[in-house]
Fold each of these.
Amino acid sequence: MLPMEHLHLEHVLQTVCVLESVVLRSFGPEGGQVLFTRDTGQAMLSRSGTRILTALRLEHPLARMVVECVLKHSTVTGDGSKTFILLLASLLRMIQKTACKEPNVSHTYNSRETAEASTARHLADKMLAFALEELDDIIAMGVVPYGCCLSWEDFTAKTQLPTCPINHCVQKLLASFFHSRLGRTHCDFISNLTCEMLTHWKFKSDLPSSLLQFVNDNFSALHTPVSGFPISCSRLIEGQVIHRDFATPCPQADHQPVKAVVVTGCLQPKLLSAGEVLVLGSGEQGREENSRKESSIVQFTAWAERSLECVIAKLQSLGVSVLLSAVKQSAAVLALAAQADMCIVECVSEDELSLFAQLSGATPVSDCWMIEPEHVAALTFCRPILLGAHRYVHVAFHDSEERITVKPCSLVICGPGEGQTDQYACAFQDAIRMLLSTWEPIDITATTASKKTLQPNKSTCLHVDNQIVKASPFQQCVLEPGCVIPAGGTFEFLLNHALLQHGSSCSISDDTIMGAPAVSQLFANALLSVPRNIYFYSLRRFLQTQTRLLSFIQNHSHPFSHVYKQEHNTIVVQGRGKSECPLEEGKLINHCCGETDVSSQVFMSDSGLESVSCKYQLLVAVLQCVSSLLHVDTVLHTHTALHTPSRRLADISWEGTEDEAED
Amino acid sequence: MSRLVKKSPSLCTDLPLDNTGICNSLHLLRQLLRSCIGPTGRLKQVHNNIGGHVITTSTSSVLLPAISSSQPFINLIKTSILNHVSRFSDCGLFAAILCLSLIEQAKQSGLRGNVATSVNKHLLGLCTSYLQQQDCGCKVKLDFCSSQSLITLARSIISSKPACVLTEREALHISKLAVQAFLLTVPCNSPGIVSLGKIVTVSVEGHSVLNSAVFPGLLVDMPDVFCLNKVENLHSNPMRMVLFSASLAGDLSDLGGIIEVHPGVDTDSQILDQLLKLGQQVVKDEVKLFICQKVIHPVLQQYLRSHGIMVIERLGITLMEPLTQLTGSQPVATLHTTIPAKAYGKVRDLSIKQFGSKTMLHLQPPGDSAICTMILCHRNETMLSELKVVCQKTEHVLRLTLREPSALLGGGCTETHLAAYVRHKSMDKVTETVSVLGCSQTEYLRGVEGFCRSLESLAAALEHDGGNSLMDLTHAHHWSHPADVMEERMEDSSGFCGCGLVESSTNQKWTYLNTKYPQFSPAPLFRVPTVQPRVLDSFTAKLNALQVAVETANLALDVRYVIQDMN
């Protein structure tokens, strides 16, 4: 008989509460760092929820399940892992309270605990269903009108229009993200740096989401961690940094442009491919030698060297002076290249080569005999750059017509130690992810799917889209790209209020504990745990903020939402209308909800901004996690001998090939 | 044994800085490092538990890696400081002690973590902007017209490492050599981007320090002495040389597949024939010096020698780059093609130098070259290894001056001066600052006091013999007085401040460090050109050390939870 563990609601709650207590230390603006050591003994610092949770190396299966849910969520949005745990704990507490108060007193259950569990399960399912069906509408009605929209121009705002206040939205959004991830002291600096970087890359593509996707995909090639310097030394540098050193003496030539070629294979031809046998025989025995009447090994090596010389001569005739190689080249290649005044960079990683190819427009070449002028990239310079302990290769690209306005740049991230630069780099990438999911909300309802395929200059599409917009303006609205709301619990307060109103406006007849009003009330109360923890140091501050917001809603709510409904439609239509004109393509996502300026001024005084779509995704993810947690009732502990082959097979995916080698 | 080991759960500590165990170990580390700083610092002996080598040192770059702790806090601080040292080579102990005492002061003042970090960051901003000002009272411009200030800078570094065990005279000698070597690596007349040359250090044990010397060019080990007699007739300057980077041992190069050799085929002799053909070409081209990074086949060696060519094999990868720079040659790795004329390099002069047991061949550059060799001698191995580390650091610090030709006053004067400046400056616009930082005025004042005390404690740390550390109330320089001097006779004990710029006079007022004094604005010095500072610190290194120390302390203060992976 396997050892069994029946899971009760309390167990689940207990487990989640333990996680909550760990996460709380670094939650919110007053939170701090968590210091942890890796199994290698290296000390790391982090405020990232996912880092902290994985570092715990939890044993309990439930806790591991929770951590997995968090990881899944945060790889998508890059944000919200700590809030995830807080909300989860708060929801479970609420559910437990309700379930204990009024267990489903039916005679089919043989104990009170099972009855409770079943009630809890039902509640969780109801809540999830509610969230999937109605939450986006409620957010659109009760929260979005008080927020504002980021516009694509915001990215460039800092350099172009430093005085215009509305354009600091992206920066504010980033600042509050970095505040929660890196602490208060550096958040402004890093968010400025992020904005600057995005500005430089801005014209890479017309749509913000593809820009963000590009930066996210190439982030490893776009940044260089440097330890031993204060963070304030972090900066942007022009062009690309290739994280390798020159294998030959570096170029002295000042002529422009520097011509470079990317090679993916060995320049020196291999005489034999693997498995082939060269037979050297005396007299007439050998096969290969027969044809050439040779029996000396020297002939073969000489042939290899001569063909290499031809390759180098070919490269020289094209004026190539830099070779970027994906593999290690032989000593002969290095020597011949040095004699031909060429410099070689060996073992460049694939990511960096693909970025280089994208930026330079030259295609990599695998066989140097086939080299053509289109393989040759023109660089403004190629020189060594000393970053921290390492010397790297620094290249900058010639402006070509198609991307005259792109200024490729890479990021140098400095920090006192490796752990810190790592932390900054992670936060940076997560910030990009967060922006991306702010910009491209995940569609949950089917009606809005067509919006993403919209091409602004196709009038047929446009027509369809406008209809959809008119038909369901609010569904459209929550998924509208770039919607943000002031941080500091505003989202939770507003949604709490909206949910309570929604609950009371629902049919009053259905007032069982499973009814819609009760569910939304429960959910609303659970939400308040987030702002409560933000203002954990003073209850007064929490209540003050809440009353301030509520009174604001009271004063503006009704006329406001009417105006909003009408204006929103017109604005959206206008936006589409404008986009017919090809010149104004970029402004498609540009329309800020005009009236939100009023509201944002009211409570944007001190806090930053956060993304509505990230919050929405978070809520859905948490509810999914709750319901899956409550559906588990028993844990079976199986015992597997570590040596049995079946186990080994199962683990082979992460054990790697080492295993097989030893077998 | 299975490698599928179950991961054990991690060990967690909540609010680590409230934990007395952790605070005690931080305090202990501070005491340990504090006792090492400065020219009179106490040495530490490091030895492991299996009877390994004993190291005597007081250098942070040697000492810190030897400190291993299970405490993640210590590791965090250690890695930060070591990273700083690896970039700037100086002020490691300064950064470590400042960081630890900032943490300690913040704990003592009882400030909330967030308040302490933001006050520290604000004050750091004050310090860095002051240090970068033109009229900063503790900064001196380095004058490249005379080597005097460079030698002072070098000597301050060398004499702050007592484990080298140098006398006054020896320290001066080494400082001069360091500056000479540094100047040799700066190319004289190359337009465009200047790339500095290289100092190759050779250490010789068992000789007096005063025998240390610097030579332009390279000194290469000559293990076999039997060709010495040939050297005399090798003065046809400049002579031609060739440098090989491929092995000339006669081994088969990798062709990619399997080679099957039938009996009767002698591949070895085929390859050797090829090598000898190479030798013939070299002889024909009148090469006088033949150097290979790897091994040379003995037959080829014999052939070359018989034609009056000097042969050096197994040069090693490290000397390849300086040698190509020195001779202007290009390493050859092809055995079948004729060596192109441009691959040959030139050497002006060859001579044999004898240092103790070492016989070395001295290669002189044909023209102007930025390569030089430094021979370091010392009486025993421990001191020699410390001296080598110190000389490398000095070279690095001197190089840093090229980018920023300034230095800071040494001897603790910069620290006391900065502390006085911060105390004074932080009183400007208190209300505005307080509202920006989001703390109360008393909290701010406590933060300032902690920061200044940490700086002053560094100046006081230079005194190890029980003397008193004082600060004058006009220029805010640091003064130390031996323990036996009575307080009333302080004015009489004529002398200079820590850096040697201020001479004591009767109308000066002093205060003990770490006591309360009325804040004042430190007066700038009227520089008399004849009075040169006697101790200088690297500007770039100290500025970065200050930033790294405050940043690391802030990180440590921000830690609320510790998770230790026990695997």
Amino acid sequence: MRAIDRKLWRDLWHMRGQAVAIALVVMCGVGTYVMFLSTLGALRATQDDYYREYRFAEVFATLKRAPESLRARIAAIPGVERVETRVVEAVRLDMPDFAEPVSARMVSLADDAPHGLNGLHLREGRLPLPGRADEVVVSTPFAKAHTLHPGDRFHAILNGRRQALTVVGTALSPEFVQQLRPGSAFPDPKRYGVMWMGRKALGQAYDLDGAFNDLALSLRPGADAQDVIDRVDALITPFGGLGAYARKDQLSHRFLTQELDQLGTLATLFPTMFMGVAAFLLNVVISRLVTMQREQIATLKAFGYGNGAVTVHYLKLVAVIAGAGIAGGILLGVWLGHALSGIYMEFYYFPWLRFSLQPATMLEAAGASLAAAGAGTIVAVWRAARLSPAQAMRPEPPPRYRETLVEQLGLKRWLSQPTRMILRHIWRKPLKSALTVLGIALACGIILTGLFQRDTVGFMMNVHYGLAQREDLSVAFTDPTAYRARFDLAGLHGVEHVEVFRSVPVRLRHGHLEHRTTIRGIEPDGELQRLLDTELRPVAMPSEGILMTDHLGKMLGVRVGDRIVVEVLEGNRPLREAVVAGLVKEYLGVAAYMDLAALNRFMHEGPTISGAWLAVDHAQLQGLYARLKELPRVAGVAERIQEIRNFNRLMDETMLFFTYVSTVFAVVIAFGVIYNSARIALTERGRELASLRVLGFTRGEIGYILLGELGILTAVAIPLGLKLGEAMCYYIALTMQTDLFRVPVVLVPQTYAFAVAVVIVSALLSGLAVRRRLDRLDLIAVLKTPE
Amino acid sequence: MPEQVSPPPLCSPAPRPIFEARGLTKVYQMGEVRVDALRGVDLDLYAGELVVLLGPSGSGKSTLLNILGGLDTPTSGTVRYAEHDLTVDDDAAMTQYRREHVGFVFQFYNLIPSLTARENVALVTEIAHDPMTPEEALALVGLAPRMDHFPSQMSGGEQQRVAIARAVAKRPQVLLCDEPTGALDAQTGVMVLEVIARVNQELGTTTVVITHNAVIAAMADRVVHFGDGHVVRIERNESRKAASELSW
Ligand SMILES: Nc1ncnc2c1ncn2[C@@H]1O[C@H](COP(=O)(O)OP(=O)(O)OP(=O)(O)O)[C@@H](O)[C@H]1O
Ligand SMILES: [Mg+2]
């Protein structure tokens, strides 16, 4: 091995502590990047493949009842490739050993065309035999929640008739990757499921033999989806069509897409931030490391090594360190990406996961790290090589210290000699001190970004379920129902308070902007559902006009007082106008609201409701469930506690994983940076400190001189870091806005305390490590080698 | 008396000197403080001669040597080695010059701390044209037994000898030594000077030795007395003493 390469390995070994710390910083940056992007890539690839292989439809429509003969006319629409007519019904189930009401979406399967649209991926068993009205395939999540297997039986109320059903298979469908009860924000497989029955059997049960009430279409490549939708609408409106919609508005797809988009934002922004911070720190640390070698650089040059050779030498050194970090980061990232995708798989019912190594992602991460490290090296070598070797080989000229501001202010006599040395040293190289401060501050800041999501989500839940939605149970009716159903509910034993609502599916339009949502008519002085303004104060419901969430307002570009077009997607689908009466603050969803009576008037209908919110006596809950099941028109019951639980489960498994991983990484980065700052300070000042020891300073005193500086820089960095962290959180929140939810920036005191503690503990540990070295400082070496 | 290459008498048509310095000045500006390290140096050095540079501390000896070795550039004036203009600020050319022609012994040794004695020498021989092996070079300075020791495991004098082995190992055309015996006892000092004289004579290496020790001046062809940034006077020794004849 050439002598110069030997020097490389010896130098590496000599600085192994620092090298490891730097490699760890790189590893965390690269690891985060690879983890998120590979997870995102895997989920996206899986979604695409799944949709394609199982022929997920592109246009959907629901109607009241149309004869099968309509099918040919729909198939004749230009651009339509395949048409599938179906029967889809909401049913109530009676599960053995489960008292609470359970509802399901029953979807028909074409008896004759096994490879139709929205194909089933059978997990167990087989498809129902044609004509068998007692055989169903149940969705895998529902089967799991109730431990159902082929051969198990339960009862369902089909069209008012109680009927025994046998499970013949369990399956997944691209149409229900996210199985959400309409109107619910979180999956609840115990209380809501999807199941499939033969077309003929289901049609007969609902008097839809030779007819259908649901449509799924696929399009030819290049077809104009909107044009197809318009033509379909024209055909189905006479049959009670509710408005065809494209895949992008399909419930499961929309949720999935939004969540993946959100993950995508996070998965780009967050690791980019991490990589950025890691790269910056790498750059700073490396350039200081190389700067410390300026005498050796000069010596190499004096003996005829050119700038190129010297630069390559240090680049190799740095490449080894960064390379180790990159390799570790890629391995870690792939491993964690696997784990994270696995967690997502629990929520998105995909039949498989297409996890693949993504060379592009890895190259990006590696490239960014190497570029940062390389730039730091080249700049530092260049700075050292720019001096004439004669000058660079001399020890740095005795530094010109100045009195610091503090001393100039006349505080001098209060400061001990060592304290003055600390202050003067910081003062002498303000840029270097500033970079150290910035490095520690960034490390402190990214700790906040990891924890902020948890804090924020906690806050959102509190607002949503603590201040706004306060009912115990919500009851949804199968169809709009006369107002007096309220009194039936109020009369049930155990119900303490009832508030009712009306939900109308609509398309809101303002200029060329439009959005599909529901208008909810609520009682003006409701206690159980309250609307909050931007300061979280309850808003009084105006007796006329429409209220909407500020986010929906933004999406439609409306302000208070604007008129919007409301296209009702129910009944005979009237087209009306309404005035925006106000905006409300909601973190979840994009709902619009009206006074209940006003909405009934708006719909030209009598007092009609779609559901109710109940406050109940919890002691009576079990009995109440049984009685609710008996009410004819109840489609489903949701318990608020369950919603919160479901949400927490979702949060726990995805976000907390995320939070933990990013927090651990942030902590490692913080420690890596602080440890390096301390070690570099030691190397830079080792001789000076040893000389002081020779002159009679105690270990304690020189320890104080060195670590006092680190202490002051850390103390300055912490408040700055907290501010930087907040700024990063605001940025994340800003880019994460979706119509699913908006993220306010909330950071609880414990989070700040944690970040501060991590920085302080890192500083203490680094101080301790350095202190141990200080104690073993080689005084003889100082005396022996002239500098 | 050993055969020697000495400069011809000044009256005869002079051969072109190998080094030619004219009006060299070097100013270090440090904030408000201005240090005039060289204040107009005119000096010619001839191929193959051994010159001793004597002068008080701070008089600019090291500064001059650094400029001759292409480690530094003068503030004004000209300096030339053979066909090389040493005043140009061309890093690549200077690197090439140092690599191909010059061997250095620095006042402060400047060994690479992470390399052993042998590796410190190898660092230079690996990029030289026709070098000795590091082992040969170290044997010359009597360090064969200490070849695998790191600088931190050696005394100041031993480090100085490694520095000399490193300088001579490439068989340079120019050997520039800044106080090569500063840290050595008389006996070792003599040994080191013998090595330098041998390289000078056997390879015809033009050699400049800085020293505070006036005794050493006796082994030179010429002695340049330096003071306050310029050449005070130049003495020519009628005969050169062998290093072994010196003692202090
Ligand atoms: N890089 C530098 N920056 C500032 N001043 C310098 C620098 N190098 C040398 N000097 C100053 O230039 C003058 C000459 O220095 P030089 O090192 O050439 O002296 P010297 O004759 O070799 O002394 P010594 O015998 O002590 O080694 C001194 O006053 C020194 O302080
Ligand atoms: Mg000197």
